[in-house]
Design brief:
The complex is a heterotrimer of chains A (530), B (299) and C (336).
Chain A lengths: L2 H16 L8 E4 L16 H8 L6 E3 L6 E3 L2 E6 L5 E6 L19 H12 L14 H5 L2 H4 E6 L4 E6 L6 H4 L10 H10 L4 H4 L7 E7 L3 E6 L12 E5 L4 H9 L14 H6 L3 E7 L2 E7 L9 H9 L3 H9 L3 E3 L22 H10 L7 E5 L11 H13 L4 E5 L3 H9 L5 E7 L6 H8 L15 H12 L3 H18 L2 E14 L2 E2 L15 E2 L1
Parallel strand pairs in A: 1-10, 14-15, 14-16
Antiparallel strand pairs in A: 2-3, 4-5, 5-7, 6-7, 8-9, 9-10, 11-17, 12-16, 12-17, 13-17, 18-19
Helix pairs in contact in A: 11-13, 12-14, 16-17, 17-18
Chain B lengths: L1 H9 L6 H9 L3 H18 L1 H4 L37 H37 L1 H16 L2 H12 L3 H28 L2 H8 L4 H37 L11 H8 L7 H29 L6
Helix pairs in contact in B: 2-12, 3-5, 3-12, 5-6, 5-8, 5-10, 6-8, 7-8, 8-10, 10-11, 10-12, 11-12
Chain C lengths: L1 H28 L4 H6 L6 H10 L6 H13 L13 H36 L4 H14 L3 H15 L22 H7 L5 H36 L2 H8 L4 H39 L4 H11 L2 H29 L1 H5 L2
Helix pairs in contact in C: 1-13, 5-6, 5-9, 5-11, 6-9, 7-9, 7-11, 8-9, 9-11, 10-11, 11-12, 11-13, 12-13
């Protein structure tokens, strides 16, 4: 900022003050929980990084604010060929990229930007493929590299994705963070300058906010993008004040040092609710916590044992002890905010007597010994796995099952449970794209045995249903298939579904227009300061 | 006061060393207070089962987050209030005294024993052996203790046992240096030469002739080592690397209570106070000990 | 003197090498690797895992990795962070001013309060004042500072509202981090109130971080004051009829501060270790927090680089203190 500009700004601020309205009215301060790893979401996997990037970028498809439904974004419309293998996106015209200190866009957003954003991840020979480490975790883990056959530009405003096989969740995938659209022109300019990694550090996108300043572990500053295609945001400045400790975040919120904060401690919720200056918003999160039985090991290959141990657990006690009200009993492997959630499924009741009877039928009247693996870290779907394991241990003891609680360092825990060393394991999942396939196929499909299918559960009738749903484009038909799959799941009981967490966002009273995002993301375009 | 001192000095037979020690030690009022406090903590730790009103793990589901008795809503059944699952804080603190003393004792024993062994051998043997050991100790001292302890615990996995081990390793260099320094100054004294001449073996020279004369500073360091051990264990617990819940270790209690800091201050304040007071008591006693054992300050 | 200096400097080279070896060994013993942690619940297949490890250069035998690392260090290259892909040295340098500013403030606080406290206690030996100063400083010395910090936030920031809760400056101010020292950057800013805001943010963290050094300095000053006051030259000065404050301030204090300087030097390590805890509590964007986070993420180059620089700093400060001591006190030079 030049000196004169600063002076003008200062005068303007003083003028505002003298008229009695606050100059800060249009600044929203968000106390975020950590530093982003960088500013290119395709390179990273953490929600913290996605929050920082979301302000800057758009995607071809967007999620409607506060829901998991997809709406047009940078693509005005799209159509799918009848075989389900060709997706044609018609791009929006007149969308401007951000102007930065050392980059002035000379053209509007067009097909080249889409090609750059995807080919960088897809094509190992792309000049940008190896820049900044070159690992595109989400692109790979969503199997996009195997799914996409080719990406074609058909004119400046049309892009065609040819797939190797039909994949219904593809459109939802296009709304995920890794599919953010970066500026191809900026990338070329930086490549020519010899500083390609700058693209990932000082981002240029089409999003509602322009990154102005980032100081690691301290602050991220954005100003509203005046040319935003959905209209300029109602706040002029957005500030992320990085504050890792939740009680300090709460203290800052109370002291008026920030307006919104994520991830409050469950213990503070009651007080926030009572506080007249705080508006406590909440929504069920897009996640599920579970205890998976290793169905490849005895006695868990016996469905009766799995059902019995389901009935032996008092889930309400878990919710009280572990979530302190910030959770909800789960009966399905899908969270209730996702479409095709089957509310008609009946959960196993808490019934130790019936459980004992079932165990006797399975020839285990005398009980048996087993283990419960408890995660060493806090996750949204399970804030305290150890305590949850203690509750389950006590409940199982009542039906004669003696369980030992086991834990490992997090990386090792994930690896060992993937290869099926456990007998029962506590884990969970947070949805990526709001598609049921992202839960049912990833966590329970036959292909996922030996990796993310911790129950090692491959059950033909179930797998047939979800495979069929994956290649069907009709949503009503898919819904029917998934609903049926949930019934099969419950009856076969490869998991004990424990809980869905509830996401809470405390905000200052003068913040309006904010909606809690079911994905657990934080988005500020619609926020207004009163 | 000076009259009494002279009288003692002039008495025909020298007073018993312990008696003399107590005479100087009790001069320091703070040290005496600290000592009494330590004795009380030891008694509390030993008789925790009888003193504590409740079990340390017993959860009273109908009395969750009760404030201390003197506040609104508190009852005398739980004098210092209860935690998030209805456990009595006072009882947990009482049982926690056991763990904290245990941590202190084990850490000091390990580091003292290893420190004496390394220090005395390197001081006595000298040469490359000494250089190697002392360089190693220098390197360990160059890293901030807490950082080194964190690294060790991360490798071994977070638990009370590993935290104890890590702290013992981290404070080892102090004992090694101290022992070596005293050995070096004692080694040249006449009584050692005399023993050498009269044919005492190496082992005898190191541990029976020299060591007892190096003990005074080591005892002081060991007392102060208790406080370091308790503090460091609490810090590791605070970072989630020490004792794991539901163990009623004070640092771990504090770490677990952090999320309640605004809702239930008593969950945070009392374990912290327990740490502070116990560490303070050991430091006070250590100070008194130093004064009493240091001949320069007598008079 | 020159020989003494050379001997001291020669002694620190093995220490440097030892520190690099020790950190290298330690971090590779830590279970779990960065690739696994990044994949999280979704898991990663062994082939891809191996490929990513190779990309990060983590597939080679450890001795080779160490050799590569150490040659890099010689050239001043500490490698790149596995997480942010930024040069470690650059990350360290952007965060270090925050830690330095906090540490300097804490040390200044500790000295300006601790030194007079110690002098007073020493001069008024055995009085109520002496006992209270000693009691207070021993309490400070026994303080679990992570708990202390939280209590102070609760009282001063939440209950009284006098000080800000955390951070280096109010998020509403627009500061260009030219020097990285917030107080200096704030002075250069054109907005009003930035400097005051930066100062207010420094109060509680410096108080917390300075508590233990303060206690140590006060105690050291007192005991060295007591020793000096018994020396003959002080008695002579008194006998000459000099004013008591003159004797204390000019004759006694100057000599009493020599051991205090050593103690202050030794506080560098204490400050840097304390910074890990203090920075976590106050969300202070410094290196303590950075290293803690790097350990959690298994960001090997960052941990290694951070520990190496910090240890080198401690070694250098200790060397500086040694040399200074040698200059002030010639007897030290000739003993080993």
């Amino acid at each position: 900022m030049s000196y004169r500009k600063g002076l003008v700004a200062l005068c303007a601020a003083l003028l505002f003050l003298s008229f009695g309205t606050s100059a800060y009215a249009a600044t929203c301060v968000y106390c975020s929980e950590g530093s982003p790893e960088g500013f290119n979401p395709s390179l990273y996997t953490s929600g913290t990084t996605f929050d920082a990037c979301r302000a800057v970028y758009d995607r071809l498809v967007l999620f409607e604010y506060g829901t998991t439904d997809t709406i047009p974004g940078l693509a005005e419309s799209w159509n799918v060929s009848s075989d389900g293998k060709t997706y044609t996106f018609n791009l929006r015209k007149g969308v401007k990229f951000h102007t930065k200190k050392d980059f002035k866009p000379t053209r509007d957003f067009n097909a080249d930007d889409v090609l750059y954003s995807f080919n960088r991840q897809f094509d190992p020979n792309h000049p940008y493929h190896k820049v900044s480490g070159g690992s595109y975790e989400y692109f790979t883990s969503m199997s996009m590299d195997k799914l996409i056959k080719s990406i074609e530009k058909k004119g400046d405003y049309t892009v065609v994705f040819n797939l190797n096989r039909p994949e219904a969740p593809f459109v939802a995938n296009m709304a995920m963070e890794f599919a953010s659209i970066l500026s191809g022109e900026y990338a070329d300019a930086m490549m020519a300058k010899g500083t390609p990694e700058k693209v990932d550090l000082d981002p240029v996108g089409t999003g509602p906010f322009v990154l102005v300043q980032y100081q690691k572990d301290a602050v991220i500053r954005y100003k509203a993008n005046p040319d935003y295609w959905r209209g300029k945001a109602k706040i002029d400045q957005l500030v992320f004040s990085i504050t890792p400790d939740a009680s300090v975040r709460y203290a800052k919120l109370k002291a008026g040092e920030c307006h919104l904060m994520p991830y409050p401690y469950p213990a503070d919720l009651a007080m926030m609710e009572k506080d007249a200056n705080i508006n406590l918003m909440q929504q069920e999160g897009l996640n599920v916590g579970y205890l998976a039985f290793n169905t490849a090991k005895k006695p868990y290959d016996n469905v009766k044992v799995r059902q019995a141990l389901n009935m032996a657990i008092n889930k309400q006690a878990i919710i009280d002890a572990v979530f302190q009200g910030a959770g909800k009993i789960a009966k399905n492997p899908l969270p209730p905010t996702i479409w095709s959630y089957n509310d008609k499924v009946e959960d196993y009741p808490y019934d130790p007597a019936a459980a004992k009877k079932l165990l006797a039928e399975a020839g285990l009247a005398g009980g048996f010994e087993t283990d419960i693996w408890a995660m060493p870290v806090q996750r949204p779907y399970n804030p305290n796995a150890r305590r949850m394991a203690e509750v389950i241990q006590a409940d199982w003891a009542k039906v004669g099952v003696k369980a030992k609680i086991v834990t490992y360092e997090w990386g090792e825990y994930l690896r060992r449970s993937m290869s099926g060393e456990h007998e029962t394991v506590l884990l969970g999942w947070t949805g990526d794209n709001g598609d049921p396939d992202n839960f049912l196929a990833v966590l329970l499909g036959c292909d996922a045995v030996g990796s993310s299918n911790r129950a090692q559960w491959c059950y033909k009738p179930f797998d047939d249903l979800i495979q069929k749903a994956k290649i069907t484009t009709d949503v009503t038909e898919r819904t029917r298939l998934y609903e049926e799959a949930q019934v099969v799941f419950k009856e076969q009981a490869p998991w004990v579904t424990t809980a869905h967490s509830i996401v809470f966002i405390p905000a200052a009273k003068n913040v309006s227009g904010y909606k809690v995002d079911p994905f657990g993301n934080h988005e500020f375009y619609h926020v207004e300061m009163k | 006061m000076s009259d009494t001192v002279e009288y003692v000095n002039q008495s025909v037979a020298p007073p018993h060393p312990l008696k003399e020690f107590w005479f100087y030690f009790k001069e320091n009022k703070g040290a005496v207070v600290g000592l009494y406090y330590i004795v009380i903590v030891i008694l509390v730790a030993i008789f925790a089962n009888f003193i504590a009103p409740h079990g340390p793990f017993e959860q009273y589901r109908d009395a969750i987050l009760k404030p201390p008795a003197w506040m609104d809503g508190g009852i005398w059944t739980y004098p210092l209030g209860t935690d998030d699952v209805g456990r009595d804080i006072l009882s947990r603190l009482i049982y926690g005294a056991r763990l904290s003393l245990f941590v202190g004792v084990i850490v000091v024993t390990i580091s003292l024993a290893a420190g004496i062994l390394l220090g005395i051998t390197s001081g006595y043997i000298g040469g490359y052996y000494e250089t190697a050991i002392m360089r190693m100790m220098d390197i360990m001292l160059a890293m901030p203790a807490l950082l080194l302890a964190m690294a060790i615990v991360t490798i071994l996995g977070p638990s009370l046992r590993n935290a104890i081990l890590a702290i013992a390793i981290v404070i080892l260099p102090h004992y090694v240096r101290l022992t070596r320094a005293s050995v070096l100054s004692e080694k040249t004294k006449d009584y050692v030469t005399a023993s050498t001449v009269s044919g005492a073996g190496t082992f005898r020279l190191m541990f029976i002739v020299i060591l007892p004369n190096c003990m005074a500073p080591l005892i002081v360091q060991a007392t102060l080592g208790f406080s370091t051990a308790i503090l460091d264990a609490a810090a590791l617990g605070f970072l989630g690397l020490g004792a794991q819940p539901p163990t009623p270790e004070w640092g771990a209690m504090l770490a677990n209570a952090l999320q309640f800091i605004q809702r239930a201050w008593w969950m945070v304040t009392f374990p912290g106070l327990a740490i502070l007071l116990t560490v303070l008591a050991f430091n006070l006693a250590g100070d008194g000990l130093r004064d009493a054992l240091d001949p320069k300050l007598k008079r | 003197m020159i020989r003494f200096l050379f001997r001291r400097i020669a002694m620190i080279i093995p220490a440097f090498i030892g520190v690099t070896l020790l950190t290298f060994a330690l971090i590779h013993l830590i279970p779990g690797d960065p690739v696994e942690l990044m994949a999280g619940e979704r898991g990663i297949d062994p082939v891809r895992h191996a490929r990513l490890m190779a990309q990060l250069g983590l597939d080679k035998p450890l001795p080779i990795q160490y050799l590569n690392y150490i040659t890099g260090v010689m050239r001043g290259d500490l490698g790149k962070s596995l997480v942010t892909k930024q040069p470690v040295l650059k990350e360290f340098l952007t965060l270090f001013p925050a830690t330095l500013e906090l540490s300097l403030f804490a040390l200044t606080f500790a000295i300006t309060v601790g030194l007079p406290m110690g002098v007073l206690a020493g001069v008024k030996r055995g009085t109520f004042l002496d006992h209270s100063v000693m009691g207070l400083s021993l309490t400070g010395y026994s303080m679990p500072i992570f708990w202390w910090g939280l209590q102070l936030i609760l009282f001063f920031s939440v209950y009284l509202g006098w000080t800000p809760v955390s951070g280096r400056i109010s998020a509403l101010f627009w500061i260009e981090p030219d020097t990285g020292f917030m107080l200096i950057d704030a002075l250069r800013s054109e907005e009003k109130g930035t400097w005051i805001s930066a100062l207010r943010h420094l109060i509680l963290p410096s108080l917390v971080l300075g508590t233990i050094p303060l206690a140590v300095i006060a105690r050291m000053t007192r005991s060295s004051m007591l020793e000096v006051l018994q020396e003959d030259y002080v008695r002579t000065a008194r006998a000459k009829g000099l004013a008591p404050w003159r004797v204390i301030m000019i004759h006694a204090l100057r000599n009493a501060t020599i051991p205090v300087i050593t103690v202050i030097g030794l506080q560098t390590g204490v400050l840097l270790a304390g910074a890990i805890l203090t920075e976590s509590i106050f969300a202070w964007p410094g290196i303590g927090k950075w290293i803690l986070e790097s350990i959690h993420r298994r960001d090997y180059p960052a941990i290694q680089g951070g520990v190496l620089i910090i240890s080198s700093l401690i070694i250098l400060v200790n060397l500086g203190v040694d040399v200074l001591y040698g200059i002030v006190n010639p007897r030290i030079r000739h003993t080993r």
